[in-house]
Amino acid sequence: MPIIKLSVVIPSRNRPNLLRKCLIALNKERHLVFEIIVGNNSSLKYLEAYQGIRDEFKIKLIKGKKKGLYKNHNHLYKSAKGTHVRVMDDDHIIPSNHIFETLKFIRSDTKAIWSIGEKQPLNPKWPKKGRYPGELTSGGFSDNLKNIDDCTAIGCGSTIYPIEIFKKKIFYIERYKFGSIWLEFGVRLKMLGYKIRVMPNIFINHYYNENKRSFNDLKMNQETRIVMILFYNLIFKRNIK
């Protein structure tokens, strides 16, 4: 049986209260986790709160680059020392035995990229059974995936990567601080020959609140959507064999 050392990395910005709830749930399966690293991209006024969380949960707290979500993601991936890197959002709360169940899938295919679906308890329009990550379409949006065992569906805050990907210096595009850049990453990884799979019937609880987003820029969202359209139609589609 392969030895899995799971590095859990959590980008966080100005939301120490949410982060603490995330870590309380994660701490219940701490014995199954190799390391927990939080990338603190917050304003200076939150520094003491994040340091308190670091001391309370005995995690590694690293200073973010203050240049957006994707820069913070990449900084975390470069800092991980495990065999696999699991990214989580700070407003995620994992259910009981979640890490234990995900490790089963990782061991079944250690070279695969594993994405995880989510439930949104605060969103009445979200399906109660949960929803899997979507795939990039020609219109620049994400849509339902077609093959759970071979897809381009990356969950920006809920995917597990073999560390070799980051050792090969394959990272998110950092040109945009926020927006739908994660959709490009999944497509690019598939083009590079990596298999992306989604764990069936495995979900995290995402306590997403539109009014409590750490950053929201409509113009940037629209611009990255256009970039996704161009990437899909001019690069990815032309490489489909």
Can you lay out the helices and strands and say which pair or pack?
Blueprint lengths: L5 E7 L3 H12 L7 E6 L6 H11 L2 E4 L5 H11 L4 E4 L4 E2 L4 H11 L4 E7 L15 E2 L5 E2 L15 E4 L1 H4 L13 H11 L4 E11 L11 H19 L5
Structure description:
- The chain has 241 residues and is an alpha/beta fold.
- The protein contains seven helices and ten strands.
- An eight-stranded mixed β-sheet has the order 3-2-1-4-9-6-10-5, sandwiched between helices. A two-stranded antiparallel ribbon has the order 7-8.
- A hairpin with a 5-residue loop joins strand 7 and strand 8.
- Helix 6 (181-191) packs parallel to helix 7 (218-236).
- The mean pLDDT is 92.
Q: What characterizes the major β-sheet? A: 8 strands, mixed
Helical content class: 25-40%
Q: In percent, how much strand structure appears in the residues? A: 15-25%
Shape: globular
If helices are DSSP runs of H or I spanning 4 or more residues, what is the number of helices? Answer: 7
Please state the CA-atom Rg, rounded to the nearest Å. Answer: 17 Å
Number of strands: 10
Spell the H/E element sequence: EHEHEHEEHEEEEHHEH
Arithmetic mean pLDDT: 92
* SSE-based structural type: alpha/beta
Q: Which stretches are low in confidence, meaning pLDDT under 50 for 5 or more residues running?
A: none
